[in-house]
Design a protein that fits this description.
The chain is an alpha+beta fold. The chain has 8 helices and 14 strands.
Amino acid sequence: MDTKPTMQVAHGTAETSAMPPHSAEPEVQDKRKKMLVAVSFILAIAIMLCFCVTIVAEIIDKINGGSGRPAFSNGPVKYIEESYSSDDVHKGDLILVKEGYKYSFPSDDDIVQILANKNSSYIVRNGNQTLDANTLEQFNKFMIALEADTGFSDVQIYNGYRSYETQRDKYEGYEDEVKAGYSEHHTGTAFDINIYVSANYFKKLTDNPEVYNYIISNAHKYGFIDRYPDAKKDITGVEHDFTMKETSRPTHLRYVGYAHAYYMSQNDLCLEEYLDELRTNYSYEGKHLNFVGDNGNTYEVYYVASSAEQTKVPVPTNYDYTVSGDNMNGFIVTVCTSAKG
């Protein structure tokens, strides 16, 4: 009889001290909200870091001239070896011809008359002017674009290909300061341009800033470089503002091919600097030069030092490529890493 009230008191005490069934839910919900906010913040930071890393990588790649490897459209480059003779070192669009680097005059030059193969978008000084066939084909395309974009069709081409005898006569007649055998004009891939006014009157290309800027800015699209820029005269050895018969040197263009012209223009390199960079930094055995052109194609370029008689040059089996000597000590292989064909 006496224990019953005690049990009631104990039961009553237990009921009085118990927490209400839903009193902890606001704290739990608040903790969940804080956790979600923290997770969202961490995710946002992670996304921003990934974005920053990507941007920095692209900037570094541009600073390095596109040295990172682009995604190849036809899989990794697969190589085989082709044999090139010691004579082949002196052939190709990238050969250096100047004092100290004599031209070898190969028998397979494809020299054509300009007058018989030009279009109406420019002028040739006379019917004696000749040029390498592919160089002329690209210049024709260039001048069509110039006329279409500016309406100008009075660019005049002259001083194209020169034989050894022609250059000798010009040197001995004080018309040119370069000895026979050491002129880029021997290659057929170099020529001068100015502005035609009348039969006996011409202007420098720089006298028409619009046309000059268009040509310098767009030359790479057709494989050309301004061979002797003023800022590089200490390297090229040629002052842009001096010749023996003219008061100022005409604009001198040289064909080297799109990929090389693009890279040189983007990195402010003359031909001497570019060839030195390839030999020093981009051998076949080491890192290759990789970049994307403004035509959307990707390119891989590397250098192979020549041997005494025969040189085994690794070339791709699954991509289009070209091989050029440098007229010094090796070969430059240029691969277009877009799908072959």
